[in-house]
Write a structure and sequence with these properties.
The protein has 180 residues and is α+β, with helices and mostly antiparallel strands. It has helices at 78-96, 171-175; strands at 3-6, 12-15, 42-44, 49-50, 53-57, 63-65, 111-116, 119-125, 132-138, 147-153, 156-164. It is built from two helices and eleven strands. β10 (147-153) and β11 (156-164) form a beta hairpin.
Length: 180
């Protein structure tokens, strides 16, 4: 039967479903006084070295690595936290190893999954605005049978979101190239 969403400016929007996404704040208080840039996480270079401190790395959802175009993204999901930990360990090992070859940049492939109402929602790559979305497979009105949405930048598939039973793993998720 729907509900109404009231915006900050007082406008009222009718809605059939409302999904609330609650963000998080990085826990950096214990690092105050360290000299690190702690605005919205711990600022680090593209290899996850804390800015100005090559012997210190940051990982997890507190890390704010230099991203494409200089944007400072933070990702608050368990899979990027594990990926940054592995990469930060390699960066630190390279720094500690005499004659290291130089740390490589951390290139995230954004991904997520969640089980909701008996269905698995999974995504990879860059999704949403400003990318053009399209239905790649399935029927959006029958998500229980599996449906995949693709997101393109020009002609390149840069992201995909799939909804369906837990066994539904479309090829589009693997094909999505977030770096295009």
């Amino acid at each position: 039967t729907g509900t109404t969403v009231v915006l900050d400016d007082g406008r009222r929007l009718p809605a059939d479903i409302v999904v609330e996404a609650v963000g998080s704040l990085p826990n950096t208080e214990w690092l105050s006084g360290s000299g690190a840039d702690l605005s919205d996480g711990v600022a680090c270079d593209a290899s996850l070295r804390v800015a100005g401190r090559p012997e210190v790395v940051a990982c997890g959802d507190v890390a704010r690595p230099l991203g494409p175009g200089g944007a400072p993204p933070r990702s608050e999901h368990w899979s990027p936290a594990a990926a940054t930990a592995r990469h930060a360990a390699l960066t630190l090992a390279d720094h500690l190893c005499p004659g290291g070859t130089g740390a490589r940049p951390y290139v995230p492939a954004p991904s997520f999954w969640s089980d909701q109402a008996g269905l698995r929602v999974q995504g990879r790559g860059r999704t949403g605005r400003p990318f053009a979305g399209e239905v790649l497979d399935g029927d959006p009105d029958a998500p229980g049978d599996g449906v995949t949405f693709g997101y393109r930048c020009g002609r390149s598939l840069v992201g995909a979101v799939a909804i369906g039973p837990r066994t539904y793993v479309p090829r589009a998720l693997a094909a999505a190239n977030p770096m295009s």
